[in-house]
Amino acid sequence: MRHLARTELVSLFSPGDLIVANDAATLPASLQGAHIASSERIEVRLAAWISVHDPTGFVAIAFGAGDHRMRTEIRPHPPSVSPGDRLSLGPLVAVVDDLLGHPRVLALRFVGDRRAILAGLARHGRPIQYAHVPEPLPLWQVWTRIAADPVSFEAPSAGFVLNWRTLAAWRERGVGFATLTHVAGISSTGDPTLDLRLPFDEPYRVPERTVAAIKQTKSHGGRIIAIGTTVVRALESVIDANGHVHAGDGVAKGRIVRETPLRLVDAILTGVHQPGESHFELLRAFAADAVLNRMSMVLTEHSYRAHEFGDSVLIEREPRMPPR
């Protein structure tokens, strides 16, 4: 383990390596409003798309009265809702389609077309945020420097480490850089049982130019470095059983955990995650538990900052012993 200043990030990669980042911009996905039937307050946090082909339908995590300043663990449950109930969310109206196995998890559909929904989110929505940052965040503050299409529900926060000076230095050093778009879903619900269901299925798009860069890098023995867990999920979804990498749209399903064989990504640059989080579970595919536990102790001992505006860790994939 090495402790380095962020300015030394440029020196960690070699000519011929390829860094892949998520260029998704973040939606203002937290909506305050009311359950029309009871007039009770409700906050809806959009967490996933129901279908990549249906821009009006969402999976949402619902809370009762309060806002992000109250820790999610102690937020009250939302009003009792039933399929068909309507929610007034500023200029938007949403209809509850179904309850998804938990009082907080709703399938809902907005009334109107995609343009009206996005306009309503822009006027009334706020970025999803948590109690460790009490001041309300403007939308631009949860966009990375490379943010493009607004499709994510939370920021692909590992990308906050990127800036134009670093990208220019990588280019001069001969380190490649490519992007993909992956819909980063909600990271925490405040309910440990419900958090075990995270991450939800997340759509992605990997362009042809990124696949071409990956193939060229692998053919010359370079490493693929993922900026964040969303990039790992996307890249490990686009390689088939024969080792072929495919461009295009898809949906990353299921969790990456300790037993998941990584076939494409060689290293991950990510934030400081806590044991038990789905992001930390993904790191177990890169390193042994003993290494990650020691890493967590060291991060705590040296007061590294967690969450989306915190510090970063670079973990290189350990070689695995073949099964006996």
Explain what you see.
- With 324 residues, the protein is an alpha+beta fold.
- It has 2 domains: 6-26 and 138-316, QueA-like (3-Layer(aba) Sandwich), CATH 3.40.1780; 30-124, Thrombin, subunit H.
- Helix content is 20%, strand content 27%.
- The chain has 7 helices and 15 strands.
- The chain has helices spanning 114-124, 164-173, 192-195, 208-219, 229-237, 278-283, 289-301, and strands at residues 18-22, 25-26, 30-35, 40-51, 54-63, 86-89, 92-99, 105-110, 150-152, 176-182, 202-206, 224-227, 248-252, 267-271, 312-316.
- The strands form 3 sheets. Strands 13-11-10-1-12-14-15 form a 7-stranded mixed β-sheet.
In short:
This protein is of the alpha+beta class. The strands form three sheets. It has a seven-stranded mixed β-sheet.
Fraction of residues in helices? 10-25%
Count of domain modules: 2
Q: What's the CATH topology label of the largest domain?
A: QueA-like
**How would a crystallographer describe the biggest sheet?**
7 strands, mixed
CATH superfamily of the largest domain: QueA-like
Radius of gyration: 20 Å
Q: What spatial form do the alpha-carbon principal axes imply? A: globular
Could you name the CATH class of the largest domain? Alpha Beta
Q: Give me the secondary-structure category.
A: alpha+beta
Instruction: Report the β-strand fraction as a percent range.
Output: 25-35%
Helix/strand order, N-terminal first = EEEEEEEEHEHEHEHEHEEHHE
Q: What is the residue-averaged pLDDT?
A: 94
CATH architecture of the largest domain: 3-Layer(aba) Sandwich
